[in-house]
Specification:
The chain is mainly alpha-helical and 366 residues long. It has helices spanning 8-12, 44-79, 85-99, 101-108, 118-151, 158-186, 209-226, 228-244, 249-283, 291-308, 311-321, 324-338, 343-350, 355-362; strands at 20-21, 23-25, 33-34, 187-192, 198-202. The protein has a single domain (44-334), classed as Rhopdopsin 7-helix transmembrane proteins (Up-down Bundle), CATH 1.20.1070.10. The chain contains 14 helices and 5 strands.
């Protein structure tokens, strides 16, 4: 999953009124792409500059929100706050995703050209891909963990649960790293011999370029949506159903919050992965080629990918700030930072919500 993978062919076509696009690569190994010249009815400059503004907004909000979540979890050892390992790792993953955004903005405003060298492209792509996959995987693990913690393992030892969660987190990072390696390996800086424009693109083996491109797109859709979303939806639905059955108004409200987790994930990621599948069908010629479709895919891939990254801003709100216990712990962490234990922090401690709500809405049992 990358900020550059799925617009690679479309961006090559930007080299203008040509039926053949020649590219030279830094290592001498490259491919020649043949294309059909299409008059562009899309104002690409206006689109890319508008998206750059949205990306900057996502960067600022995501940077601040996720930094606060990470900082609070680091302060936990001073405040007595029990960290939720998945929330902490989710915030780290989202934080590193948004930290790569300035690099993509620099490329975006130059019509996806890449002036920063091949090494920078590989490193930025790897960081982006690992942490974006990691973010989705941690959201999936969190939904399963919360359900089992409430239904089956509420009486199990705290130490055993911590060990299991740590092992799961290690596995998630290793899996995210593994699935991010193939595209990073194939990334090259390529220069058009006609326009002298440099791009950073995955250059798969020439003899089966289409198969590699389709395979990587389908892998991204499968691991980024087709597998995680049903898991998240099913486990949160079961958890919300159990909680909503309670006559307690506060717990019923928690059930509605849990359903919002599923809706936000769906709204953020379904459009992007739907467009990626359209791109796959187009490459495989299941959808007849047309200039209108080319222009649509170019715009849709850029817009939906930008929109999907809003998830990095919404995650800290949904999984941290919306929970009353979290807000209390944030206040307590700030107070502890600048003063000794006071009557105010004791008052905050006395105002904590029930352990059941704490488990279901924000964190698991201690």
């Amino acid at each position: 999953m990358s900020a550059i993978d799925f617009t690679s062919i479309l961006d090559y076509l930007e080299s203008a009124n040509l039926t053949e696009i020649n590219l030279t690569c830094s290592n001498g190994e490259c491919v020649t792409l043949e294309s059909v010249s299409c008059p562009s009815t899309l104002n690409k400059s206006a689109l890319l500059y508008a998206l750059a503004i949205v990306y900057i907004f996502i960067f600022v909000i995501g940077l601040v929100a996720n930094s606060v979540v990470v900082w609070l979890n680091i302060q936990a050892k001073h405040t007595g706050y029990e960290t939720h390992l998945y929330v902490f790792n989710l915030a780290i993953a989202d934080l590193f995703v948004v930290l790569t955004i300035p690099v993509w903005v620099v490329s975006l405003v130059q019509h996806n050209q890449w002036p920063m060298g091949e090494l920078t492209c590989k490193i930025a792509h790897l960081l982006f891909s690992i942490n974006l996959f990691g973010s989705i995987f941690f959201l999936t693990c969190m939904s399963v963990d919360r359900y089992f913690s409430i239904i089956f393992f509420s009486a199990s030892s705290n130490r055993k649960r911590k060990i299991v969660r740590r092992l799961v987190c290690i596995f998630v990072w290793l899996l995210a790293f593994t699935v991010s390696l193939p595209d990073t390996y194939f990334l090259k800086t390529v220069t058009s011999t006609l326009s002298n424009e440099t791009y950073c693109r995955p250059l798969y083996p020439e003899e089966n370029f289409k198969e590699w491109l389709v395979g990587m797109e389908l892998t991204s859709v499968t691991l980024g949506f087709i597998i995680p979303f049903p898991i998240i939806a099913v486990f949160y639905y079961l958890l919300a159903k159990r909680i909503s059955a309670s006559s307690d108004q506060e717990r019923s409200s928690s059930g509605k919050i849990i359903i919002s987790y599923v809706i936000v994930f769906l709204v953020c990621w379904l459009p992007y992965h739907g467009v990626v599948l359209l791109d796959v069908f187009s490459v495989l010629m299941y959808i007849p080629f047309s200039c209108q479709m080319e222009n649509f895919l170019y715009a849709a891939l850029h817009i939906t990918q930008c929109f999907s990254l809003l998830h990095c801003c919404l995650n800290p709100i949904l999984y941290s700030f919306i929970n009353r216990n979290y807000r209390y712990e944030l206040m307590k962490a700030v107070i502890f930072k600048y003063s000794a234990k006071t009557g105010l922090t004791k008052l905050i401690d006395a105002s904590r919500v029930s352990e059941t709500e704490y488990i279901t809405v924000d964190q698991n049992t201690k």
